Amino acid sequence: MARAIWKGAISFGLVHIPVALNTAVRTERVDFDWLDKRSMEPVGYKRVNKVTGKEIDKDNIVKGVEYEKGRYVVISEEEIRKARPEATQTIDIFSFVEAGEIPLQHFDTPYYLTPDRRGGKVYALLRETLEKTGKVALATVVLHTRQHLALLRPLDDALVMITLRWPEEVRGLETLELDSSVTDTKVDKRELDMAKRLIEDMSGPWKPEDYHDAFRQTILDLVEEKASKGKIATVEKGKAASAEKGADILDLTELLKRSLGGKKPAKKPRKAS
Fold this sequence. Notes:
Layout: E1 6-12, E2 15-23, E3 35-36, E4 41-42, E5 63-68, E6 71-75, H1 77-83, E7 90-98, E8 107-115, H2 120-133, E9 135-143, E10 146-155, E11 158-164, H3 180-183, H4 189-202, H5 214-228, H6 252-261
Parallel strand pairs: 1-7
Antiparallel strand pairs: 1-2, 2-8, 3-4, 5-6, 7-9, 8-11, 9-10, 10-11
């Protein structure tokens, strides 16, 4: 069973659903570390002044945002800390929209949500409600000190949370140079029929197990081949761990009634600075 990377609660109205967040994807690329070929020791980085070329101590480094070309506004660590959103350990649902309404280019990273601490019944209720209505939930959540816009949608027996890109992070189609050869072209019917037949001939079911990263596999095979010949250098690596806290569940029926009775217009989130 996958280890949860975050624990908290889904919140909508007065209802809280304890959940655990699990990664839905993983990166399987090959990492190439820098090594000193003379000693096979790891190669690190130095903090260097780009003007003088001299190494500087970390105590002399501050953070700045380029306001104009070559001119910076310095922001202190305390100011950065105060600007970070509060980690509330909740996925705060603020609205529901049609499932097909959100363009794919807004999608970022998917996660699996599982019920935690006797939250199965309420979890199932939200999943079934989304399934029956064809809606997805819009929410905000703080992960790793950053606030994210996210959607929640059903997937078979589970709920999936997908973080979304903020509107200013998505380029519109108007930024593309699409001339009249694309926008005003009259497609020839014969060519269209031929293209459709070609697509039909090449069509098949989605079988993700049939697709592989050929470059990664070639490198891994090369590593195995060299390792079998004793061409190995030992390099020590660090370790990391993290833990999060959970949330309680309250009476569902009563909270639903109270939520409907005291319904207020949903507030739209603002992106944290």
